[in-house]
Specification:
The complex is a heterodimer of chains A (about 200) and B (about 500).
Chain A (H helix, E strand, L loop, with lengths): L7 E5 L3 H13 L3 E5 L2 H7 L5 E6 L7 H10 L6 E5 L4 H9 L4 E4 L4 H34 L2 H11 L4 H8 L3 H14 L5 H12 L1
Parallel strand pairs in A: 1-2, 1-3, 3-4, 4-5
Chain B lengths: L1 H21 L3 E5 L6 E4 L3 H5 L3 H4 L10 H18 L1 E9 L5 E12 L6 E10 L1 H19 L3 E5 L5 E4 L1 H7 L17 H15 L3 E7 L13 E9 L10 E8 L1 H57 L4 H29 L7 E3 L1 H18 L3 E5 L3 E3 L1 E3 L1 H20 L10 E9 L2 E8 L6 H6 L15 H11 L3 E6 L5 E8 L5 E3 L2
Parallel strand pairs in B: 12-15
Antiparallel strand pairs in B: 1-2, 1-5, 3-4, 4-5, 6-7, 6-10, 8-9, 9-10, 11-14, 13-19, 15-16, 16-18, 17-18
Helix pairs in contact in B: 8-9, 8-10, 8-11, 8-13, 10-11, 11-13
Classes of the chains: A alpha/beta (about 200), B alpha+beta (about 500).
Chain lengths: ~200, ~500
């Protein structure tokens, strides 16, 4: 597990005074903060570092919801807490559909916010670990040759070497070689592990 | 001798025939008894449409109006027989079937010796034109009498000679009364009336205008009425009748008109207020959002400060900065409340000098959340230098809110072309002697047929809303001597421009 205190709390809000006060509150509680006035500025600067994002849902230019979609599209693991104003329930609903961790309505209680930030950073920690694993898995899968992938896919579907050889019109011996290489490259010693790994790749 | 007498008689007959034929009157002779025509002159054709030969031996009463024929037989004929002359007015049927009013003088001719009735000579003239004029005068008198306007005639000393029904009612006078006008009016009316009368007498011209007239007993009336002198005309002396000059006055009771105007003004203000309240509800959301920002900021600063004080990690100079920031935010919240209050206040029409760019920014700051919520981006394109206008600020704000809200609604209609930018532009422009405040959307435009109906009350393309936004906006703008222009290509954009004339020669530059 990574150290939570080494993670950053990112703040994106167009209201400068509010942004400043939020950073003041978070820094007072010992968090490391990085604040941005627009979604564009954040996107330009963010390099995938671990942490969580406090995101104002309503902003000129790229809105909070659009930024969320962009983060999802780029497959960032960064968990998002939405900051909502009064009467933006429908926005919050949309935000939650975009896989926000939670939302908190302005003005908020500092205890509630800090507790939420703490929880979210712990979640972020898990997510970033998973994301690393996932990324590793992806890289391994990419290292397989076309034939090795074909063999691996058929193997996890339960096909025997003989069936695979017939399907791909190659010899059983060749199937065995591809299969053993695929297992090795995917860092799996059992077929069950390969099943899990491929499942992870496909999701 | 006999020859001379004979010649003299022939001359008389010739002169007689000439007179008969050339005189302007209709000359006929009749046989006693059946009153048949025995001779007629050529003029008879104009009166009856018959040629002389068509009338010979036809009884005259055959052409009389049935009612008049009876009177003729019963009274005139016996009277002519008995007394020699008689004048009668009656209706004579023309060949075309119409009746003409005719006046005839009948004279009986008797044999000098025997006294026997030999013939009746009749001289007639057509009274139709005269009769028409009389009827016309009667109708005019009736119209005057029953007119809703107060009509009265008086001499130069305001002694009234005639009042119509409306005048008698307004002045509470009985029918046979002809008082002096001045005691009926409030004393301050005398001077202006006398001045006016003198002017009219002097110039001999017909005066038309609006001169308020107040009744002397105005205070004691249950329902005070408002009068206005509208016409004063001098009618000159009549040399024939010996009458002096007299004056005709037409006075209008404008009580109802004034009440209607007052009602209309109140209704307009009430409508504008209703529209404001309508938007008020929607604006409450905007207010809550706007005011949340400074409140949340204050809360963050103060809670953060408490936390640091607890931990002893804050010095007094940091606290000063912090408290200043908190004060700023409290001020910001107060300003928001103040702006909202000015939008809602029930104020009568108030003209003030307005800076349209500032007004645009204020309104947009309130509406920003509505645009955000609808996923529409707003651009402001304000003229760098714009004249100050004189207008009612609240009302102009109301108009702008309506237009901006319509622009948002336009995108809800689903008429926007696919892939169109969801964008609204709020712009200002200096245009000769007016300031233009415009709102443009790209939500698909407005078809020409719909454009014509936009300003009709209760015409709305939305499922919600009263359809009163644009009519109210237009009456507000027109009350400012301005107008609202609508431009659209019918498929892409719509532009609503409020054109407001500005106070002359005042220019202000944008900071």
């Amino acid at each position: 597990m990574a150290d939570i205190s080494s993670m950053s709390v990112f703040v994106v809000d167009d209201d400068e005074a509010f942004r400043d006060s939020l950073v003041w509150l978070l820094e007072g509680a010992g968090y490391h903060c990085r604040a941005y006035g627009t979604a564009e500025a954040f996107l330009a600067d963010y390099d995938g570092a671990a942490g969580c994002l406090l995101l104002d849902i309503r902003m000129p230019g790229i809105s909070g919801l659009e930024l969320q979609r962009e983060l999802n599209r780029r497959a960032f693991a960064l968990p998002v807490i939405l900051l909502t104003g009064h009467g933006s329930v429908s926005w919050a609903v949309q935000g939650m559909k975009n896989r926000a961790v939670d939302f908190i309505e302005k003005p908020f209680d500092d205890e509630a916010l800090l507790a939420l930030v703490e929880q979210t950073l712990q979640l972020a920690d898990r997510r970033f670990v998973e994301a690393r694993a996932q990324r590793q898995l992806g890289e391994r899968w990419q290292s397989l040759s076309r034939r090795e992938r074909q063999v691996a896919k058929l193997a996890v579907q339960g096909a025997s070497n003989k069936e695979i050889a017939e399907r791909l019109d190659i010899t059983i011996k060749t199937v065995e070689v591809h299969r053993s290489r695929a297992m090795k490259k995917m860092a799996c010693d059992k077929l069950a592990h390969l099943v899990d790994a491929l499942h992870g790749v496909q999701s | 001798m006999a020859e001379r007498a004979q010649r003299s008689l022939g001359l008389d007959a010739e002169r007689y025939a000439f007179l008969i034929e050339e005189s302007g009157v209709v000359f006929t002779t009749h046989r006693p008894g059946d009153w048949a025509y025995t001779s007629v002159n050529a003029r008879i054709f104009e009166l009856t449409g018959y040629r002389p030969d068509e009338l010979m031996e036809v009884p005259a009463y055959f052409f009389f109006h049935p009612e008049d024929a009876e009177a003729m037989k019963q009274r005139t004929m016996p009277a002519v027989h008995a007394h020699g002359t008689r004048t009668m007015r009656y209706r004579l049927r023309h060949k075309d079937g119409s009746y003409r009013w005719v006046e005839s003088v009948h004279r009986s001719i008797r044999d000098a010796d025997s006294g026997e009735l030999k013939e009746v000579i009749t001289v007639s003239r057509d009274l139709t034109a005269q009769r028409e004029a009389e009827l016309q005068a009667q109708r005019l008198a009736m119209a005057t009498e029953s007119s809703a306007d107060l009509v009265l005639f008086c001499d130069q000393n305001f002694q009234i000679s005639y009042m119509n029904g409306s005048a008698r009612r307004a002045f509470s006078q009985s029918e046979d009364c002809s008082p002096s006008l001045l005691p009926l009016l409030a004393s301050h009316c005398e001077y202006s009336l006398r001045t006016l009368l003198r002017d009219v007498e002097h110039t001999g011209q017909h005066w038309q205008g609006q001169l308020p007239i107040e009744l002397a007993d105005r205070q004691s009336r249950a329902q005070p009425i408002q009068l206005e002198l509208q016409e004063l005309q001098r009618h000159g002396e009549n040399a024939l009748s010996g009458e002096g000059a007299f004056y005709g006055l037409i006075i209008r009771d404008i009580t109802e008109q004034r009440q209607a105007e007052q009602l209309e003004r109140e209704r307009q203000q009430e409508l504008a207020r209703a529209a404001r309240l309508m938007t008020m509800g929607e604006m409450a959301t905007g207010l809550a959002h706007e005011i949340n920002q400074p409140l949340a900021t204050i809360l963050n600063y103060s809670r953060g400060a408490l936390r640091r004080l607890d931990m002893g990690s804050v010095d007094s100079s940091a606290m000063v900065t912090l408290l200043q920031r908190i004060a700023q935010q409290a001020q910001r919240a107060a300003d928001i409340i103040k702006r909202l209050r000015s939008l809602v206040k029930k104020t009568p029409f108030q003209r003030a000098q307005i800076e349209v760019n500032g007004l645009s920014r204020d309104v947009l700051s309130f509406m920003q959340h509505e645009f955000d919520a609808a996923g529409i981006s707003v651009q402001m394109s304000l003229a760098p230098s714009l004249a100050i206008i004189e207008a009612d600020k609240v009302q102009v704000e109301q108009v702008l809110i309506n237009l901006l809200r319509n622009a948002i609604e336009a995108y809800r209609g689903g008429a926007a072309p696919p892939g169109a930018e969801r964008q609204v532009t709020l712009y200002t422009r200096q245009c000769d002697d007016a300031v233009v405040l415009g709102v443009e959307d790209r939500a698909g435009g407005i078809a020409p047929a719909r454009r014509e109906r936009l300003f009709e009350p209760y015409y709305s393309s939305k499922s919600t809303g009263l359809g009163m936004g644009l009519p109210i906006s237009r009456s507000i703008v027109e009350a400012h001597s301005g107008r609202i222009d609508v431009q659209s290509d019918g498929e892409y954009y719509s532009r609503f421009e409020v054109v407001l004339p500005h106070a002359p020669n005042v220019l202000q530059s944008e900071e």
